[in-house]
Amino acid sequence: MRHLQIILLFVLTLLLGGVSPAPAQNSPLFTSENAQTAEVTTAPESKITFTTGMKKLVFSVAVVTLIFMVLLLVLKKFTPGGAPQLPKDVFEVLGKSPLAFRQQLYLLRCGKKIFIVSLSQNGLDRVGEIEDPEEVERLARRCGGEIPDAGNAFREWSAKKQEGEKA
Questions:
Q1: Beta strands per DSSP E along the chain
Q2: Which of 37, 67, 89, 141 is deepest in the core (most CB within 10 A)?
């Protein structure tokens, strides 16, 4: 992050041409030719108006913003990503259900256990856990969208249909 700040300051300095005070209008200037004779000349009148200054300001801000956005895109592309996602057999959010106003119940599977946690404004609280492997698998299947005994119901329906056709 420190390198980004240094780069941005360098770019701003290049864009703005460094910091140098503008000569005041009608201020006396000494040149090398007339320095010995001490002749005083005046600076030429400046033709900068308000609209010209605003145009320069808006253009400068747009250029700096564009450079900043390009730098962010480059940094985002070349910085390493975060931690990799955990596999589903290691950790999985099985589902959630509302309990009360701004309070929800979550089923979280971690390995061979299911943790029941409550999420509220006060934070995350563990309500309980399920350790029975058969119950863990049954709940994981149910939360995954599997209908219980769907295979048996189809087999029964298919057997009845075949018996009806034979008769």
A1: 28-29, 41-42, 91-100, 103-110, 113-120, 123-130
A2: 67
pLDDT at 153: 59
How many CB atoms sit inside 10 A of residue 1's CB?
Answer: 5
Q: Check residues 77 and 81 and name the one with the higher pLDDT.
A: 77
Distance in angstroms (rounded) separating the CA atoms of residues 101 and 117: 16
Output the six-digit token pair for 55: 């145009």
Which distant-in-sequence residues (6+ apart) come within 8 Å of 40 by Cβ?
28, 29, 30, 34
Q: What's the pTM value of the predicted model, to 2 decimals? A: 0.43
Residue whose C-alpha is closest to residue 120's, from 133, 131, 106, 107 = 106
The residue extents of the domains of the chain are 2-17+26-78, 91-147
